[in-house]
Amino acid sequence: MERDTKEDLNLNEILLLRRKKLDDLRERGKDPFTIDKYDRTDYTQAIKDDYANYEGKKVSVAGRIMTKREHGKASFVDIQDVQGRIQVYVREDEIGGENYREFASFDIGDIVGVKGEVFTTRKGEISVKAQEVLLLSKSLQVLPEKWHGLKDPDLRYRQRYVDLVVNPEVKETFLIRSKIIKSIREYLDNIGYIEVETPILHTIAGGANAKPFITHHNTLDIDMYLRIATELHLKRLIVGGLEKVYEIGRIFRNEGMSIKHNPEFTTIELYEAYTDYHGMMELTENLIAYAANNVLGTTKISYQGVDIDLTPPWTRLTMVDAIKKYTGIEFRKDDDSLSAYAKAKDLGVDIERNASKGQIINTVFEEKVEEHLIQPTFILDYPVEVSPLAKRKADDPEFTSRFEGFIYSWEIANAFSELNDPIDQKKRFEDQLKQREAGDEEAHMMDEDYVNALEVGLPPTGGLGIGIDRVVMLLTDSYSIRDVILFPTMKPKE
Q1: Domains of the chain (ranges plus CATH)?
Q2: pTM
Q3: 3-state secondary structure of 380
Q4: Are strands 461-467 and 244-252 parallel, antiparallel or unpaired?
Protein backbone atom coordinates (compact mmCIF):
# COMPACT_ATOMS: atom_id res chain seq x y z
CA MET A 1 0.00 0.00 0.00
CA GLU A 2 1.31 3.45 -0.88
CA ARG A 3 2.35 5.74 1.94
CA ASP A 4 3.72 9.28 2.03
CA THR A 5 7.27 9.98 3.26
CA LYS A 6 6.18 10.68 6.85
CA GLU A 7 4.19 7.45 7.00
CA ASP A 8 7.16 5.52 5.59
CA LEU A 9 9.41 7.03 8.25
CA ASN A 10 6.94 6.10 10.99
CA LEU A 11 6.60 2.59 9.58
CA ASN A 12 10.34 2.10 9.51
CA GLU A 13 10.57 3.25 13.11
CA ILE A 14 7.82 0.82 14.12
CA LEU A 15 9.53 -2.08 12.32
CA LEU A 16 12.84 -1.26 14.00
CA LEU A 17 11.11 -1.05 17.39
CA ARG A 18 9.55 -4.48 16.92
CA ARG A 19 12.95 -5.99 16.13
CA LYS A 20 14.39 -4.28 19.20
CA LYS A 21 11.65 -5.83 21.34
CA LEU A 22 12.59 -9.24 19.96
CA ASP A 23 16.26 -8.62 20.71
CA ASP A 24 15.35 -7.65 24.28
CA LEU A 25 13.35 -10.84 24.72
CA ARG A 26 16.25 -12.93 23.44
CA GLU A 27 18.70 -11.19 25.78
CA ARG A 28 16.43 -12.12 28.70
CA GLY A 29 16.18 -15.75 27.55
CA LYS A 30 12.55 -15.40 26.43
CA ASP A 31 12.87 -15.90 22.68
CA PRO A 32 9.30 -16.80 21.52
CA PHE A 33 10.64 -18.65 18.49
CA THR A 34 12.13 -21.36 20.71
CA ILE A 35 8.65 -22.50 21.84
CA ASP A 36 7.73 -25.73 20.03
CA LYS A 37 4.07 -26.15 20.99
CA TYR A 38 1.24 -24.78 23.08
CA ASP A 39 -1.44 -26.87 24.72
CA ARG A 40 -4.66 -25.23 23.59
CA THR A 41 -7.86 -26.68 25.03
CA ASP A 42 -10.58 -24.53 23.46
CA TYR A 43 -11.46 -22.28 20.52
CA THR A 44 -12.86 -18.75 20.64
CA GLN A 45 -16.19 -19.24 18.89
CA ALA A 46 -16.92 -22.50 20.69
CA ILE A 47 -16.62 -20.66 24.01
CA LYS A 48 -19.00 -17.93 22.86
CA ASP A 49 -21.50 -20.36 21.32
CA ASP A 50 -21.65 -22.55 24.44
CA TYR A 51 -21.16 -19.95 27.17
CA ALA A 52 -23.57 -21.62 29.59
CA ASN A 53 -21.18 -24.56 29.86
CA TYR A 54 -18.05 -22.43 29.80
CA GLU A 55 -18.91 -19.76 32.42
CA GLY A 56 -16.32 -19.95 35.21
CA LYS A 57 -14.38 -22.70 33.42
CA LYS A 58 -10.60 -22.62 33.05
CA VAL A 59 -9.56 -22.59 29.39
CA SER A 60 -6.41 -22.33 27.30
CA VAL A 61 -6.79 -20.44 24.02
CA ALA A 62 -4.30 -19.25 21.41
CA GLY A 63 -4.35 -16.79 18.56
CA ARG A 64 -3.22 -13.48 17.09
CA ILE A 65 -3.65 -10.16 18.91
CA MET A 66 -5.95 -8.06 16.70
CA THR A 67 -6.77 -5.14 19.02
CA LYS A 68 -5.27 -3.85 22.25
CA ARG A 69 -6.72 -1.33 24.71
CA GLU A 70 -4.71 -0.37 27.80
CA HIS A 71 -6.28 1.11 30.96
CA GLY A 72 -3.48 1.64 33.46
CA LYS A 73 -2.86 -1.62 35.23
CA ALA A 74 -5.42 -3.52 33.15
CA SER A 75 -5.79 -4.16 29.42
CA PHE A 76 -8.22 -5.67 26.96
CA VAL A 77 -7.04 -7.50 23.84
CA ASP A 78 -8.96 -9.36 21.15
CA ILE A 79 -7.29 -12.54 19.99
CA GLN A 80 -8.25 -14.29 16.77
CA ASP A 81 -8.03 -17.99 15.96
CA VAL A 82 -9.41 -20.05 13.07
CA GLN A 83 -12.98 -19.81 14.42
CA GLY A 84 -13.21 -16.13 15.32
CA ARG A 85 -12.27 -13.70 18.10
CA ILE A 86 -12.65 -13.42 21.84
CA GLN A 87 -11.79 -10.66 24.28
CA VAL A 88 -9.09 -11.26 26.88
CA TYR A 89 -8.97 -9.22 30.10
CA VAL A 90 -5.44 -8.88 31.50
CA ARG A 91 -4.79 -7.39 34.96
CA GLU A 92 -1.43 -6.68 36.55
CA ASP A 93 -2.51 -7.98 39.96
CA GLU A 94 -3.65 -11.24 38.33
CA ILE A 95 -0.55 -12.13 36.29
CA GLY A 96 2.11 -10.23 38.28
CA GLY A 97 3.97 -6.96 37.72
CA GLU A 98 6.89 -8.30 35.67
CA ASN A 99 4.64 -10.43 33.48
CA TYR A 100 2.27 -7.51 32.94
CA ARG A 101 5.11 -5.21 31.87
CA GLU A 102 6.21 -7.86 29.40
CA PHE A 103 2.64 -8.25 28.16
CA ALA A 104 2.37 -4.46 27.76
CA SER A 105 5.19 -4.65 25.18
CA PHE A 106 3.26 -7.08 22.97
CA ASP A 107 2.11 -5.69 19.62
CA ILE A 108 -0.95 -6.13 17.44
CA GLY A 109 -0.15 -9.10 15.24
CA ASP A 110 1.75 -11.04 17.91
CA ILE A 111 0.59 -14.61 18.50
CA VAL A 112 -0.10 -15.50 22.13
CA GLY A 113 -1.35 -18.30 24.32
CA VAL A 114 -3.76 -17.39 27.13
CA LYS A 115 -4.81 -19.42 30.15
CA GLY A 116 -7.66 -18.09 32.25
CA GLU A 117 -11.29 -18.20 33.31
CA VAL A 118 -14.33 -17.51 31.14
CA PHE A 119 -16.60 -14.71 32.37
CA THR A 120 -18.82 -11.87 31.14
CA THR A 121 -17.79 -8.22 31.50
CA ARG A 122 -20.11 -5.54 32.89
CA LYS A 123 -20.87 -4.61 29.27
CA GLY A 124 -22.02 -8.15 28.62
CA GLU A 125 -19.10 -9.32 26.48
CA ILE A 126 -17.97 -12.93 26.84
CA SER A 127 -14.26 -12.83 27.72
CA VAL A 128 -11.35 -14.71 29.24
CA LYS A 129 -9.82 -13.33 32.44
CA ALA A 130 -6.13 -14.06 31.91
CA GLN A 131 -4.05 -15.85 34.53
CA GLU A 132 -1.15 -16.35 32.10
CA VAL A 133 -0.26 -14.75 28.76
CA LEU A 134 2.61 -16.31 26.80
CA LEU A 135 4.16 -14.85 23.65
CA LEU A 136 4.36 -17.67 21.08
CA SER A 137 5.48 -15.73 18.00
CA LYS A 138 6.59 -12.14 17.52
CA SER A 139 5.13 -10.30 14.51
CA LEU A 140 7.86 -8.19 12.91
CA GLN A 141 5.51 -6.64 10.35
CA VAL A 142 2.56 -4.28 10.77
CA LEU A 143 -0.97 -5.42 9.94
CA PRO A 144 -3.05 -3.06 7.76
CA GLU A 145 -4.71 -0.21 9.63
CA LYS A 146 -7.89 -1.26 11.46
CA TRP A 147 -10.56 0.74 9.64
CA HIS A 148 -9.22 0.57 6.09
CA GLY A 149 -7.82 -2.96 6.21
CA LEU A 150 -6.22 -4.64 3.22
CA LYS A 151 -8.37 -3.55 0.28
CA ASP A 152 -6.02 -3.32 -2.71
CA PRO A 153 -6.86 -6.48 -4.74
CA ASP A 154 -3.35 -6.89 -6.13
CA LEU A 155 -1.79 -6.75 -2.66
CA ARG A 156 -4.50 -9.01 -1.22
CA TYR A 157 -3.73 -11.75 -3.76
CA ARG A 158 0.05 -11.38 -3.34
CA GLN A 159 -0.13 -11.39 0.46
CA ARG A 160 -3.00 -13.82 1.00
CA TYR A 161 -1.60 -14.60 4.45
CA VAL A 162 -2.36 -11.01 5.49
CA ASP A 163 -5.68 -11.02 3.63
CA LEU A 164 -6.83 -14.04 5.63
CA VAL A 165 -5.84 -12.39 8.91
CA VAL A 166 -7.55 -9.03 8.43
CA ASN A 167 -10.53 -9.90 6.20
CA PRO A 168 -12.72 -12.53 7.93
CA GLU A 169 -14.98 -12.90 4.88
CA VAL A 170 -11.99 -14.13 2.87
CA LYS A 171 -11.32 -16.92 5.33
CA GLU A 172 -15.02 -17.84 5.18
CA THR A 173 -14.85 -18.12 1.37
CA PHE A 174 -12.07 -20.68 1.59
CA LEU A 175 -13.76 -22.62 4.37
CA ILE A 176 -16.83 -22.84 2.11
CA ARG A 177 -14.61 -23.93 -0.79
CA SER A 178 -13.34 -26.81 1.33
CA LYS A 179 -16.92 -27.78 2.24
CA ILE A 180 -17.97 -27.72 -1.44
CA ILE A 181 -15.16 -30.09 -2.44
CA LYS A 182 -15.95 -32.33 0.52
CA SER A 183 -19.62 -32.41 -0.56
CA ILE A 184 -18.66 -33.36 -4.12
CA ARG A 185 -16.53 -36.24 -2.86
CA GLU A 186 -19.28 -37.33 -0.49
CA TYR A 187 -21.91 -37.40 -3.22
CA LEU A 188 -19.78 -39.43 -5.64
CA ASP A 189 -18.46 -41.82 -2.99
CA ASN A 190 -22.05 -42.52 -1.93
CA ILE A 191 -23.03 -43.63 -5.45
CA GLY A 192 -20.10 -45.97 -5.92
CA TYR A 193 -17.38 -43.83 -7.52
CA ILE A 194 -13.75 -44.24 -6.51
CA GLU A 195 -11.24 -41.39 -6.37
CA VAL A 196 -8.00 -41.90 -8.28
CA GLU A 197 -4.85 -39.94 -9.11
CA THR A 198 -3.33 -39.65 -12.58
CA PRO A 199 -0.10 -38.03 -13.80
CA ILE A 200 0.39 -34.27 -13.94
CA LEU A 201 3.42 -34.60 -16.24
CA HIS A 202 2.38 -35.84 -19.69
CA THR A 203 4.39 -36.73 -22.78
CA ILE A 204 1.43 -35.62 -24.92
CA ALA A 205 -0.85 -32.66 -24.16
CA GLY A 206 -4.22 -34.34 -24.52
CA GLY A 207 -7.82 -34.40 -23.37
CA ALA A 208 -8.71 -30.84 -24.38
CA ASN A 209 -8.05 -28.16 -26.95
CA ALA A 210 -5.67 -25.93 -25.01
CA LYS A 211 -2.13 -24.58 -25.07
CA PRO A 212 0.08 -26.41 -22.54
CA PHE A 213 2.95 -25.41 -20.30
CA ILE A 214 6.15 -27.16 -21.39
CA THR A 215 8.90 -28.40 -19.08
CA HIS A 216 11.89 -30.69 -19.47
CA HIS A 217 12.67 -33.99 -17.75
CA ASN A 218 16.44 -34.02 -17.22
CA THR A 219 16.89 -37.74 -16.57
CA LEU A 220 14.81 -38.87 -19.55
CA ASP A 221 15.98 -35.87 -21.61
CA ILE A 222 12.49 -35.25 -23.01
CA ASP A 223 10.11 -32.32 -23.06
CA MET A 224 6.95 -32.89 -21.05
CA TYR A 225 3.67 -31.03 -20.60
CA LEU A 226 1.77 -30.06 -17.48
CA ARG A 227 -1.61 -31.67 -17.96
CA ILE A 228 -4.37 -29.71 -19.65
CA ALA A 229 -6.96 -32.35 -18.67
CA THR A 230 -7.24 -35.64 -16.79
CA GLU A 231 -9.55 -37.20 -19.39
CA LEU A 232 -7.42 -39.65 -21.34
CA HIS A 233 -5.82 -41.32 -18.33
CA LEU A 234 -9.16 -41.66 -16.57
CA LYS A 235 -10.71 -43.33 -19.62
CA ARG A 236 -7.78 -45.75 -19.72
CA LEU A 237 -8.94 -46.81 -16.24
CA ILE A 238 -12.44 -47.50 -17.57
CA VAL A 239 -10.82 -49.70 -20.22
CA GLY A 240 -9.07 -51.48 -17.33
CA GLY A 241 -12.39 -52.26 -15.65
CA LEU A 242 -12.71 -49.51 -13.03
CA GLU A 243 -16.28 -48.61 -13.96
CA LYS A 244 -16.80 -45.41 -11.93
CA VAL A 245 -13.79 -43.12 -11.36
CA TYR A 246 -13.19 -39.47 -10.57
CA GLU A 247 -10.27 -37.16 -9.96
CA ILE A 248 -10.21 -33.71 -8.36
CA GLY A 249 -7.03 -31.92 -9.25
CA ARG A 250 -5.10 -29.04 -10.73
CA ILE A 251 -5.14 -28.39 -14.49
CA PHE A 252 -2.63 -26.11 -16.25
CA ARG A 253 -3.29 -24.12 -19.43
CA ASN A 254 -0.87 -21.57 -20.84
CA GLU A 255 -3.60 -19.19 -21.93
CA GLY A 256 -5.25 -15.90 -21.09
CA MET A 257 -6.23 -14.59 -17.67
CA SER A 258 -9.53 -12.97 -16.70
CA ILE A 259 -12.06 -12.87 -13.88
CA LYS A 260 -13.03 -16.41 -15.01
CA HIS A 261 -9.62 -17.78 -16.02
CA ASN A 262 -6.43 -18.61 -14.12
CA PRO A 263 -3.55 -20.54 -15.75
CA GLU A 264 -3.85 -23.23 -13.07
CA PHE A 265 -7.29 -24.20 -11.86
CA THR A 266 -9.16 -27.07 -10.25
CA THR A 267 -11.52 -29.45 -11.98
CA ILE A 268 -13.27 -32.68 -11.26
CA GLU A 269 -13.47 -35.18 -14.09
CA LEU A 270 -15.45 -38.38 -13.73
CA TYR A 271 -16.24 -41.33 -15.98
CA GLU A 272 -18.88 -44.03 -15.70
CA ALA A 273 -19.20 -47.14 -17.83
CA TYR A 274 -22.51 -48.09 -19.43
CA THR A 275 -24.11 -44.66 -19.31
CA ASP A 276 -24.29 -41.70 -21.72
CA TYR A 277 -24.37 -37.92 -21.71
CA HIS A 278 -27.99 -37.91 -20.52
CA GLY A 279 -26.85 -39.78 -17.42
CA MET A 280 -24.10 -37.19 -16.99
CA MET A 281 -26.68 -34.38 -17.19
CA GLU A 282 -28.65 -35.84 -14.32
CA LEU A 283 -25.48 -36.37 -12.32
CA THR A 284 -24.31 -32.78 -12.94
CA GLU A 285 -27.49 -31.05 -11.82
CA ASN A 286 -27.91 -33.35 -8.82
CA LEU A 287 -24.26 -33.01 -7.77
CA ILE A 288 -24.25 -29.20 -7.83
CA ALA A 289 -27.63 -29.03 -6.11
CA TYR A 290 -26.33 -31.41 -3.41
CA ALA A 291 -23.25 -29.25 -2.81
CA ALA A 292 -25.36 -26.07 -2.62
CA ASN A 293 -27.79 -27.65 -0.16
CA ASN A 294 -24.96 -29.04 1.97
CA VAL A 295 -23.06 -25.76 2.15
CA LEU A 296 -25.78 -23.10 1.95
CA GLY A 297 -28.91 -25.02 2.92
CA THR A 298 -30.64 -24.05 -0.32
CA THR A 299 -30.46 -24.41 -4.11
CA LYS A 300 -31.68 -20.84 -4.63
CA ILE A 301 -28.73 -18.48 -4.64
CA SER A 302 -27.95 -14.87 -5.53
CA TYR A 303 -24.89 -14.16 -7.65
CA GLN A 304 -23.84 -10.53 -8.14
CA GLY A 305 -27.42 -9.46 -7.51
CA VAL A 306 -28.98 -12.04 -9.87
CA ASP A 307 -31.24 -14.74 -8.44
CA ILE A 308 -30.34 -18.21 -9.72
CA ASP A 309 -32.22 -21.45 -9.06
CA LEU A 310 -30.01 -24.55 -9.10
CA THR A 311 -32.92 -26.93 -8.43
CA PRO A 312 -33.03 -29.86 -10.89
CA PRO A 313 -34.08 -30.40 -13.59
CA TRP A 314 -32.22 -27.74 -15.56
CA THR A 315 -33.27 -26.44 -18.97
CA ARG A 316 -32.08 -28.54 -21.95
CA LEU A 317 -31.58 -27.10 -25.45
CA THR A 318 -29.62 -28.32 -28.46
CA MET A 319 -27.02 -25.86 -29.74
CA VAL A 320 -28.95 -25.37 -32.98
CA ASP A 321 -32.24 -24.77 -31.11
CA ALA A 322 -30.55 -22.34 -28.73
CA ILE A 323 -29.20 -20.31 -31.66
CA LYS A 324 -32.68 -20.23 -33.20
CA LYS A 325 -34.25 -19.20 -29.87
CA TYR A 326 -31.90 -16.28 -29.23
CA THR A 327 -31.10 -15.09 -32.79
CA GLY A 328 -33.97 -16.28 -34.96
CA ILE A 329 -31.46 -17.93 -37.33
CA GLU A 330 -31.82 -21.66 -38.00
CA PHE A 331 -28.96 -23.86 -39.15
CA ARG A 332 -30.40 -26.76 -41.15
CA LYS A 333 -29.10 -30.19 -42.03
CA ASP A 334 -28.91 -29.25 -45.71
CA ASP A 335 -26.77 -26.14 -45.02
CA ASP A 336 -23.23 -26.34 -46.32
CA SER A 337 -20.31 -24.25 -45.05
CA LEU A 338 -21.06 -21.41 -47.49
CA SER A 339 -24.70 -21.04 -46.46
CA ALA A 340 -23.69 -21.32 -42.79
CA TYR A 341 -21.07 -18.62 -43.35
CA ALA A 342 -23.70 -16.33 -44.90
CA LYS A 343 -26.01 -16.79 -41.90
CA ALA A 344 -23.18 -15.97 -39.51
CA LYS A 345 -22.36 -12.79 -41.46
CA ASP A 346 -26.04 -11.78 -41.30
CA LEU A 347 -25.72 -11.94 -37.51
CA GLY A 348 -22.56 -9.82 -37.57
CA VAL A 349 -20.30 -12.71 -36.53
CA ASP A 350 -16.80 -12.31 -37.92
CA ILE A 351 -15.43 -15.70 -38.96
CA GLU A 352 -12.85 -17.06 -41.40
CA ARG A 353 -14.20 -17.83 -44.86
CA ASN A 354 -12.73 -21.34 -44.89
CA ALA A 355 -14.27 -22.35 -41.54
CA SER A 356 -16.32 -25.55 -41.54
CA LYS A 357 -20.05 -25.57 -40.92
CA GLY A 358 -19.55 -26.98 -37.43
CA GLN A 359 -16.97 -24.35 -36.51
CA ILE A 360 -19.32 -21.62 -37.73
CA ILE A 361 -22.25 -22.93 -35.70
CA ASN A 362 -20.08 -23.12 -32.57
CA THR A 363 -18.75 -19.57 -33.07
CA VAL A 364 -22.25 -18.16 -33.55
CA PHE A 365 -23.33 -19.90 -30.35
CA GLU A 366 -20.40 -18.53 -28.35
CA GLU A 367 -20.85 -14.97 -29.57
CA LYS A 368 -24.64 -14.67 -29.70
CA VAL A 369 -26.13 -17.17 -27.25
CA GLU A 370 -23.88 -17.79 -24.22
CA GLU A 371 -24.60 -14.36 -22.74
CA HIS A 372 -28.29 -15.28 -22.41
CA LEU A 373 -27.73 -18.47 -20.42
CA ILE A 374 -28.15 -17.09 -16.91
CA GLN A 375 -30.29 -19.80 -15.31
CA PRO A 376 -28.79 -23.32 -15.30
CA THR A 377 -28.99 -24.65 -18.84
CA PHE A 378 -27.59 -27.67 -20.67
CA ILE A 379 -26.62 -27.04 -24.29
CA LEU A 380 -26.63 -30.35 -26.17
CA ASP A 381 -25.23 -31.76 -29.40
CA TYR A 382 -22.03 -29.94 -30.36
CA PRO A 383 -20.51 -30.09 -33.86
CA VAL A 384 -18.01 -32.89 -34.35
CA GLU A 385 -15.27 -30.45 -35.42
CA VAL A 386 -15.08 -28.94 -31.93
CA SER A 387 -15.60 -32.24 -30.06
CA PRO A 388 -12.72 -34.58 -30.99
CA LEU A 389 -13.34 -36.97 -28.07
CA ALA A 390 -17.15 -37.20 -28.14
CA LYS A 391 -19.28 -39.89 -29.81
CA ARG A 392 -21.13 -38.94 -32.99
CA LYS A 393 -24.92 -38.90 -32.88
CA ALA A 394 -26.23 -41.95 -34.72
CA ASP A 395 -29.04 -39.98 -36.40
CA ASP A 396 -26.90 -36.94 -37.32
CA PRO A 397 -23.13 -37.65 -37.55
CA GLU A 398 -22.30 -33.94 -38.04
CA PHE A 399 -23.00 -33.54 -34.32
CA THR A 400 -21.89 -35.32 -31.16
CA SER A 401 -23.52 -36.54 -27.96
CA ARG A 402 -21.97 -33.75 -25.94
CA PHE A 403 -23.32 -31.08 -23.62
CA GLU A 404 -22.00 -28.10 -21.73
CA GLY A 405 -23.69 -26.78 -18.60
CA PHE A 406 -24.04 -23.00 -18.30
CA ILE A 407 -24.85 -20.79 -15.30
CA TYR A 408 -24.64 -16.99 -15.37
CA SER A 409 -23.42 -17.33 -19.00
CA TRP A 410 -20.35 -19.31 -17.82
CA GLU A 411 -19.47 -22.80 -18.89
CA ILE A 412 -19.59 -24.82 -15.66
CA ALA A 413 -19.54 -28.38 -17.01
CA ASN A 414 -18.54 -30.25 -20.17
CA ALA A 415 -19.59 -33.84 -20.85
CA PHE A 416 -19.81 -36.47 -23.59
CA SER A 417 -21.01 -39.84 -24.51
CA GLU A 418 -17.39 -40.86 -24.91
CA LEU A 419 -16.06 -41.82 -28.32
CA ASN A 420 -15.07 -45.49 -28.06
CA ASP A 421 -14.53 -46.27 -31.74
CA PRO A 422 -10.72 -46.46 -32.14
CA ILE A 423 -10.87 -46.03 -35.94
CA ASP A 424 -12.99 -42.89 -35.71
CA GLN A 425 -10.83 -41.60 -32.84
CA LYS A 426 -7.60 -41.99 -34.80
CA LYS A 427 -9.15 -40.20 -37.80
CA ARG A 428 -10.18 -37.29 -35.56
CA PHE A 429 -6.70 -37.07 -34.07
CA GLU A 430 -5.36 -36.92 -37.64
CA ASP A 431 -7.79 -34.10 -38.43
CA GLN A 432 -6.60 -32.28 -35.31
CA LEU A 433 -2.98 -32.69 -36.45
CA LYS A 434 -3.87 -30.94 -39.70
CA GLN A 435 -5.26 -28.05 -37.67
CA ARG A 436 -1.99 -27.92 -35.68
CA GLU A 437 0.00 -27.86 -38.89
CA ALA A 438 -2.20 -24.96 -40.02
CA GLY A 439 -1.17 -23.01 -36.93
CA ASP A 440 -3.73 -23.96 -34.28
CA GLU A 441 -1.57 -24.45 -31.15
CA GLU A 442 -4.58 -25.68 -29.16
CA ALA A 443 -5.50 -28.52 -31.52
CA HIS A 444 -5.15 -32.04 -30.13
CA MET A 445 -1.96 -34.07 -30.52
CA MET A 446 -1.90 -37.65 -31.73
CA ASP A 447 -2.01 -40.12 -28.82
CA GLU A 448 -1.21 -43.57 -30.18
CA ASP A 449 -1.34 -45.24 -26.77
CA TYR A 450 -4.84 -43.91 -26.15
CA VAL A 451 -5.96 -45.28 -29.52
CA ASN A 452 -4.40 -48.60 -28.49
CA ALA A 453 -6.42 -48.47 -25.26
CA LEU A 454 -9.61 -47.99 -27.28
CA GLU A 455 -8.64 -50.98 -29.41
CA VAL A 456 -8.47 -53.06 -26.22
CA GLY A 457 -12.07 -51.96 -25.68
CA LEU A 458 -13.82 -49.04 -23.98
CA PRO A 459 -17.43 -49.81 -23.00
CA PRO A 460 -20.14 -47.22 -23.68
CA THR A 461 -19.14 -44.50 -21.23
CA GLY A 462 -20.33 -41.13 -20.01
CA GLY A 463 -17.71 -38.56 -19.01
CA LEU A 464 -17.98 -35.22 -17.24
CA GLY A 465 -15.73 -32.32 -16.28
CA ILE A 466 -16.77 -29.54 -13.88
CA GLY A 467 -14.84 -26.36 -13.09
CA ILE A 468 -14.57 -26.35 -9.29
CA ASP A 469 -13.41 -22.73 -9.08
CA ARG A 470 -16.45 -21.42 -10.97
CA VAL A 471 -18.82 -23.45 -8.80
CA VAL A 472 -17.14 -21.93 -5.73
CA MET A 473 -17.47 -18.46 -7.25
CA LEU A 474 -21.20 -18.98 -7.67
CA LEU A 475 -21.81 -20.42 -4.21
CA THR A 476 -19.75 -17.71 -2.45
CA ASP A 477 -20.91 -14.80 -4.64
CA SER A 478 -17.27 -14.07 -5.57
CA TYR A 479 -16.69 -11.68 -8.48
CA SER A 480 -13.31 -13.02 -9.63
CA ILE A 481 -11.72 -16.46 -9.83
CA ARG A 482 -8.78 -14.93 -7.93
CA ASP A 483 -11.09 -14.54 -4.94
CA VAL A 484 -11.54 -18.32 -4.69
CA ILE A 485 -7.96 -19.46 -5.40
CA LEU A 486 -5.72 -19.06 -2.37
CA PHE A 487 -2.64 -18.15 -4.39
CA PRO A 488 -3.66 -17.01 -7.91
CA THR A 489 -1.04 -16.66 -10.62
CA MET A 490 0.61 -13.22 -10.41
CA LYS A 491 3.42 -11.53 -12.28
CA PRO A 492 6.29 -10.95 -9.81
CA LYS A 493 6.73 -7.37 -8.68
CA GLU A 494 10.06 -5.84 -9.60
Answers
A1: 5-143 (2.40.50.140), 166-314+375-483 (3.30.930.10)
A2: 0.92
A3: strand
A4: unpaired
